[in-house]
Amino acid sequence: NEYSLRLRGCFEHLLDEKGRVSVPATFRQLLFEKKIKEIVLTNFVCDGARCLEGFAAPDWEIFENKLASRSRFDPKLKKLENFYLARAAFCPLDNSGRITIPNHLRVYASLERDLVFTSSLHGFRLWDLRIWSLVFQEAETALLENPELFIDVDR
Predict the structure, then answer these.
(1) How far apart are CA 67 and CA 136, in angstroms?
(2) Using an 8 Å Cβ cutoff, are 91 and 104 in contact?
(3) d(Cα 117, Cα 152) in Å, to the nearest integer?
(4) DSSP state letters, the chain
(5) By CB distance 3.0 to 4.6 Å, which of 50, 103, 123, 154 could disulfide with 55?
């Protein structure tokens, strides 16, 4: 995999009154080892719920370069640019290992105080705890109702 930052697990953190949140220690360690000082956050929709998607800055640049090879007249690409790229924000890590989440992204994902960082194959997702709890519960219910739900995922 060409991506340098991949979170494994689920981590709860608090958002402070200035919009800052501590990056989970496992993320910080990976970032530190690769000398990466910025994370990119953007709006995302997962299972019908709003959240943020995050990447190490070099991973975001890899993604942008892949998109740049496509025709700029592609209507799907234009929609992606309008929704996903236009609202992306570079968030530097401060000396305490925190990032400041821009207000437009906090509002979009309804981030209030209790946040959850979750695994993603391309980086991570950032949720308000209330929303994440519902999304997780829906996924668990679907799996309980259909134990073979994931049977073809790794084939």
Answers:
(1) 30
(2) no
(3) 26
(4) ---S----SEEEEE--TTSEEEPPHHHHHHHHHTT--EEEEEEEEETTEEEEEEEEHHHHHHHHHHHHTS-TT-HHHHHHIIIIITT-EEEE--TTSEEEPPHHHHHHTT--SEEEEEEETTEEEEEEHHHHHHHHHHHHHHHHH-TTTTTTTT-
(5) 123
Taking the model in full, what pTM does it have?
A: 0.91
Residue at 128: amino acid letter: D
Structure tokens at 146: 């259909």
| pLDDT exceeds cutoff 80 at 140 | yes
Residues in the chain: 155
Q: What is the pLDDT of residues 90-136, one digit of tens each?
A: 999 999 999 999 999 999 999 999 999 998 888 899 999 999 999 99
**Burial class of 80 by CB neighbour count within 10 A (0 to 12, 13 to 18, 19+):** middle
